Structure formats: structure tokens, C-alpha cells
């Protein structure tokens, strides 16, 4: 008896024998539902036999037969009714458990449970329900026929990667039929939020309306994605609208899992708890920094992968630099709690960073993952990996704490057929084409290419995707090009100086400038000017406009 739990009230399994019912009762179940019609298989016991065994074991039993592949709306409602009436927990079964899982999923959809949550539960139980995803999106009902939208290329996501790739496609083939799907009204220049938190940029400088950035000739579909059907070349929107495509580009960014730290969501933006990873909170970071006179300042970094792995440290360096310049640093204890084992993943940049750690007398705590926070009490708890391989809880107080939340692919990506085992879009790291669905490409934070998740990476990825997609469609001649893993992390080590970290796959250094101009392993004022004055206009006026300055793709190695 291979039991799969879908919810606290319901588990499902394959065909039960009468002898299994006593074991089910011993496991704590109080009722069973049979979803398999009698006589479906030659080795199948009849329900009357199963019902007798269930009653002998003290279980209530219900017979709700469903023909395989023909789950009706009435079946779903009947299943929900039985589930509501029976004592809990309930064990439902059919030949493999799939019909029972489908009935539950469609019933949850009718109760307005979010589609990604439903698919996550069934996927975790081992049931692939891609064949009914459109019906789940329709609230559990059989969707009516309707005219689908169609576009030659559909781009999911209107962030840095999505807008850049749409612009790069248009630059190469102006008459290409492209749609961008994104529900947001505002597009943010997220690399600027570190500077907002350091009192350098105003928040408004990092925001533009989405409508102003959609490339000319590109259709903007202002809606949220619910699911993917790559076998049918379709994207399902919330409300069960369907958009079909010839080619799909997936660039929705990632999800900041604020709920992944107990107590965090309730205290963000007050009680000294802040984060530069949110537009509305970055100004609060600067308020805390400039008003802190003494005490303990804590900065956290979650497990990888995360968006801009240097950002947690940037917040610390800029804050400590301000306190040093104001003569307050001697009264402020600076602490970095890093879930990882090292300060920075590319060793060539660590010596310069360690000089600043010493300059600010910052205490480094490696292998510490923030798990809980109590804002009013100004306390935080971390799980620390021990040398023996175990873990222990570490508690600390704070006067201000800059929190970086754990991060993951968006829910509708994680539960889709496009995802790898970790939930990221599964692509070839060179071509950025999906490994199993050749009509699908991905770039930016949501794909599983082993590069740093930065806007600089998306700037280099967009031309690669645009070129390869058009070559594969027959719109461009020439060979495929390859993304080399380039990413950049301008580490703001003090106000007026930056360590310009640039590297590719495997941590290979990939400087954009000669060392006599900018040596990325040393702090530089010129690199600061690049970050402060040049990169924002490059982002707005080049990257998002299809102008590929210093981003032309190179041919793939033979």
C-alpha cells in the first residue's frame, strides 16, 4: 500500500485489497473512498468485498466510481461532498491513485485554491496532472471552447530579461509577431535598490511604467501566467485564457520567499527590520542606517541561488562606510550571517573584500541560515551547520537587521513540465534552449544555467536567445551562438569605490576593461562612476531597446 498524502484530510493510493483495510485503519485513516468502477480489471476485488473489510476494520466506505479519463464536473462535486461528510482523514483509491488525485485537484480548484499550490501538492505525491491543468485553471470545470490568442513568439515576463529579449528579437526581425505576458504596471531597475538603501539614489529613479518599455510593435498581454502546456505549445493565463505560440521564451524572474522565514512578513518595514530586495523597503534601510547611533547591525544572506549574490554584502559595506564617516562605527557591532561557507564564490575578489571586512571590523558568521525573527523583541534565530554535519540554533539580538529572503523559481514554473528537479527552467547552459522542449528558451533568474543571477547576465543572455531562436525558426542564417556564463556584480565596498566583479561559468574572470583602466580585483572610483552614472542609462536606453553594446553574442564552439 503506497499511500500519498495530498492534504491533512486526504491521502490517495492505488488499488486496495481487502487485507489492506485493517492496515489503513491502524495507520489512522477513518474512511475510504473507492473511485474505481467494479469490473475494470480482472484481478480487481469488488466494492462489496472491500466495504465489508472496511467495516470490519472500523472504517466508513464510499463507492464513487469514475471512468478513467472521463472525470465529470458531477464526479468532482460528489467527491467533494463525500470528503466533507466523512470522518477524517480519508484514504481514496483507484487503479493507480491518479483519478482520486484528479478529483481532489479539481475540487480544490472549485474552492479557489491557487493552481500552483494544487499542482505542487499532486507533483510532490508523484501525480502528473498536466493533462487537466487547463481545467484546474478554469476552477475545476470543463473549459468551454474559445478562440485562443496566437503569437509567433511569446515572452513570459516583463522584467530585465523579458523586455531585453523582446527588444533584441525586434532589432533582428522588426516584423516578428511577439507578445510579452506580464501583469505588472511598473518595471524596476532592481540593481539600483542597493544605492537607494545607501542613500545614493532616489527610489523613483529605479522605476518606469511597463507601458513605456514594451518595444514598439510588441503586444503586451497584461495578465498573470497560471501554467504551461509545452506539449500543446500553450500558456494558460489566470482565468483559463489560452495563448498559443510557435516559440516560447520564459523570463519571469524568481520568487522572493518572505514567508520562508518565520515572523519576517509581519515585521518587515518596522522594528528595525528591512531589506533592499524590495522597492518600498530600500528607503527604510537608509533611514535605519543614518539614524543608528549605537548597537548591533545584522546583515543576512540565505542559501544560494539568489538574485545578485553580492547584494547582502553591498548593504553591509555601504552602511558600515556611512557609520565610519560619521564617527559612529566604534559604537556599532557589524555582523554578517551567511548561509554559505565563503565570503564570495570567486576567490580572486576575496582578498580585497576581506580588507573591507577588517576595515569595518565586521564579524563573519558562515553556515548560518536565518530561520525566525521577532521584530518587536529585536531577536533573530539562525540554523548553524556544525563541523560534524549536524545543526544547532544560534540566537542574536539586533538594533537593525537587513534581511535577504530565501529565493526560488516562481510557483507556476516550479510545478510545470519545464522545471528541473529543483524547480528551475531546465535549459542547455550555452544555447539557453530547453533540454526537452526545443521550442522553448529561457533566460534570467528563472533558468537553471549555473551563472550568477544578475541583470548583467540577462544583458548577455538576451542576444543569445534572440539569435538562436531566429536561426532555429529559419529567419536568420548562420550558426548558433553560445552564452558563456557572464555575470557582473559591482560590489559597493564604500561610497565612491566599487570592486567590479565580472566572471563566467566556473568562476572564470571575464573583465570588460583592461586592467590599467579598471582592475576588477581592486576597489576603483571609476567602477563606482560606471555603476552610478553609466549603468542606469545603459539599462534603460540600450539593454531594453535592443542595443547590444558590449553584448554581441559569439558563435558556439564546434
From TrEMBL:
Superkingdom of source: Bacteria
Class of this enzyme: hydrolase
UniProt cofactor(s): FAD
InterPro entries hit by this protein: BLH_phosphatase-like (IPR005939), FAD/NAD-bd_sf (IPR036188), FAD/NAD-binding_dom (IPR023753), Prot-tyrosine_phosphatase-like (IPR029021), Sulphide_quinone_reductase (IPR015904)
EC number: 3.-.-.-
Domain Beta-lactamase hydrolase-like protein phosphatase-like: 2-110
Keywords, alphabetical: FAD, Flavoprotein, Hydrolase, Oxidoreductase, Quinone, Transit peptide
Single Gene Ontology MF annotation: quinone binding
An individual GO BP term: sulfide oxidation, using sulfide:quinone oxidoreductase
Record keyword Hydrolase present: yes
Residue intervals of the FAD/NAD(P)-binding domain: 152-271
Protein name (record): Beta-lactamase hydrolase-like protein
Amino acid at each position: 500500500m503506497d499511500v500519498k498524502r495530498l492534504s491533512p484530510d486526504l491521502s490517495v493510493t492505488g488499488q486496495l485489497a481487502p487485507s489492506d483495510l485493517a492496515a489503513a485503519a491502524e495507520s489512522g485513516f477513518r474512511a475510504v473512498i473507492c473511485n474505481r468502477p467494479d469490473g475494470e480489471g480482472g484481478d480487481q476485488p469488488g466494492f462489496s468485498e472491500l466495504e465489508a473489510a472496511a467495516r470490519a476494520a472500523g472504517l466508513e466506505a464510499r463507492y464513487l466510481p469514475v471512468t478513467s479519463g472521463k472525470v465529470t464536473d458531477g464526479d468532482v462535486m460528489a467527491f467533494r461532498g463525500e470528503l466533507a461528510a466523512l470522518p477524517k482523514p480519508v484514504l481514496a483509491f483507484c487503479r493507480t491513485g491518479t483519478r482520486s488525485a484528479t478529483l481532489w485537484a479539481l475540487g480544490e480548484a472549485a474552492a479557489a485554491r491557487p493552481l500552483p499550490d494544487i499542482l505542487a501538492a499532486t507533483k510532490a505525491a508523484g501525480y502528473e496532472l498536466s493533462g487537466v491543468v487547463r481545467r484546474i485553471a478554469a476552477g475545476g470545470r470543463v473549459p468551454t471552447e474559445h478562440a485562443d490568442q496566437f503569437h509567433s513568439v511569446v515572452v513570459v515576463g516583463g522584467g530585465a530579461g523579458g523586455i531585453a529579449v523582446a527588444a533584441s528579437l525586434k532589432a533582428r526581425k522588426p516584423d516578428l509577431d511577439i507578445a510579452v505576458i506580464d501583469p505588472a504596471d511598473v518595471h524596476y531597475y532592481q540593481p539600483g535598490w542597493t544605492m537607494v538603501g545607501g542613500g545614493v539614489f532616489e527610489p523613483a529613479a529605479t522605476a518606469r511604467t511597463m507601458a513605456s518599455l514594451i518595444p514598439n510593435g510588441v503586444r503586451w498581454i497584461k495578465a498573470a501566467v497560471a501554467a504551461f502546456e509545452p506539449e500543446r505549445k500553450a500558456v494558460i493565463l489566470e482565468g483559463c485564457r489560452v495563448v498559443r505560440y510557435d516559440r516560447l521564451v520564459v523570463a519571469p524572474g524568481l520568487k522572493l520567499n518572505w514567508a520562508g522565514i518565520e515572523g519576517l512578513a509581519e515585521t518587515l518595514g518596522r522594528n528595525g527590520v528591512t531589506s533592499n530586495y524590495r522597492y518600498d523597503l530600500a528607503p527604510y534601510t537608509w533611514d535605519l542606517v543614518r539614524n543608528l547611533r549605537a548597537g548591533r547591525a545584522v546583515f543576512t544572506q540565505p542559501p544560494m541561488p539568489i538574485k545578485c549574490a553580492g547584494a547582502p554584502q553591498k548593504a553591509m559595506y555601504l552602511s558600515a562606510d556611512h557609520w565610519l564617516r560619521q564617527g559612529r562605527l566604534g559604537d556599532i557591532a557589524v555582523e554578517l550571517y551567511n548561509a554559505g561557507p565563503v565570503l564570495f564564490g570567486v576567490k580572486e575578489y576575496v582578498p580585497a573584500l576581506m580588507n573591507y571586512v577588517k576595515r569595518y571590523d565586521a564579524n563573519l558568521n558562515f553556515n548560518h541560515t536565518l530561520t525566525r525573527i521577532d521584530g518587536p523583541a529585536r531577536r533573530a534565530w539562525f540554523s548553524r551547520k556544525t563541523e560534524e554535519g549536524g545543526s544547532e540554533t544560534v540566537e542574536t539580538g539586533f538594533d537593525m537587521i537587513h534581511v535577504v529572503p530565501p529565493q526560488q523559481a516562481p510557483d507556476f514554473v516550479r510545478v510545470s513540465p519545464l522545471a528541473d528537479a529543483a524547480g528551475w527552467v531546465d535549459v542547455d547552459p550555452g544555447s539557453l534552449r530547453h533540454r526537452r522542449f526545443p521550442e522553448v528558451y529561457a533566460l534570467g533568474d528563472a533558468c537553471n544555467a549555473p551563472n550568477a543571477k544578475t541583470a548583467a547576465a540577462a544583458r548577455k543572455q538576451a542576444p543569445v536567445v534572440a539569435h538562436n531562436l531566429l536561426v532555429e525558426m529559419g529567419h536568420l542564417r548562420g550558426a548558433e551562438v553560445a552564452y558563456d556564463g557572464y555575470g557582473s556584480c559591482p560590489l559597493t565596498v564604500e561610497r565612491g569605490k566599487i570592486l567590479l566583479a565580472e566572471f563566467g561559468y566556473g568562476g572564470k574572470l571575464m573583465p570588460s576593461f583592461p586592467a590599467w583602466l579598471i582592475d576588477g580585483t581592486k576597489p576603483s572610483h571609476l567602477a563606482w562612476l560606471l555603476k552610478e552614472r553609466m549603468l542606469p542609462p545603459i539599462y534603460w536606453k540600450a539593454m531594453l531597446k535592443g542595443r547590444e553594446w558590449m553584448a554581441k553574442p559569439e558563435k558556439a564552439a564546434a
